[in-house]
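dumping the sequnces here before i forget
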Amino acid sequence: MHDTTDQHLFERVLQDNDQLADENRHHFDDMGAYVVNFMSAPGAGKTTLILELAKRLKDKLSVSVIEGDMVGDLDAERLRTAGVSAFQISTGRSCHLDAAMIARLLHATPHPEGQMIIIENVGNLVCPAEFPLGEHLRIVLLSVTEGDDKPIKYPVIFHNCDAVVLTKTDLIDHVDFNFETVEKTVKALNPKVELFKVSTKNGDGLDEFLAWLEARHSITLTASAV
Amino acid sequence: MHDTTDQHLFERVLQDNDQLADENRHHFDDMGAYVVNFMSAPGAGKTTLILELAKRLKDKLSVSVIEGDMVGDLDAERLRTAGVSAFQISTGRSCHLDAAMIARLLHATPHPEGQMIIIENVGNLVCPAEFPLGEHLRIVLLSVTEGDDKPIKYPVIFHNCDAVVLTKTDLIDHVDFNFETVEKTVKALNPKVELFKVSTKNGDGLDEFLAWLEARHSITLTASAV
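..and the predicted 3d for all of it:
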């Protein structure tokens, strides 16, 4: 929607969002909450992965989940059924969460609380990359069923994240997907990125990803305490 | 990006797009070109399906393909290698094609020509739904690996199309995906929609989809001739 005539306006929207994201970040830090933003195309398995993480983390940490969807609260209900505290944001016609939506939720009653807040963004590999929410960590999921060319075609989101989780690895024998190709492309875009291979179906790789997430949380807690 | 404050502007952008889409439609009709817009999430298999269709159609009809991607021309090159006439539009930061991008290409040298022009939109289940391009037919792909809840979560695009093609059906035994659930949801959103099940890997369903596409093309040719 941002033709050259609308370029200036789009830049203003991004600047406003960045400022609100900074305010959210302070808010999260004051709450003592570590915030992780999960992004991917529709159907890469964000909700299922978040459900697994929340279940495994909840005995160690207090966890809330924020679900972003155009309409409905299917995913939030799915989490609540599993005993996870979940809050729904309906984005309507917007193809991503923005910092203002998160700010409004943080000032609502009730609002997400806990030592870790997990955000599930709208399924989209383009716009969520340009709209930070105040999160501490940005994770991009890529399902092996989507093809190994996606980091080339959607470079911004893979450049602008802390980790890439390759999901549905149980299907690897049935699809054309080369892990080395993806690793090479993603590392060229983003040399410091961490890569994980995960299947929520057979549990492969979940422990490694969870250990990394907990380690990052501890680093932030220590840094905040100094 | 369209917060309430930007709602008015967003409506203006959509109106401008609708007007340009109408102009494109007249342009296509004057050219005698039947235009089909393919939309889906990233990795649902648009390029592979389009490649199959273009190869099978090109002995009967003259066909051009317009590829929309944020960056690069991977998909256009893939089509050209197979002998298909292909034109790339780079959308940059935009998460969808718009009517202005198509209009510019139609006035460029060289530009797409032929009795059928196939457009591959940017991989995104949200915004392409609200930006008509002047096409005669709108097709949405949904891969069985994405999950059968997608029409509930992204209703606008499934409401606003002529056919839904369920792709990668060769993987059906390895995923949780219920055809009846999807058919029920999609038909509730869009009673007149056609549904197809296709695998480009084993060829299942391709003949049926192609026959429907050719029939629609003939209907339009006949209607134009009257």
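Residues 7-31 of chain B form the longest helix (25 residues).
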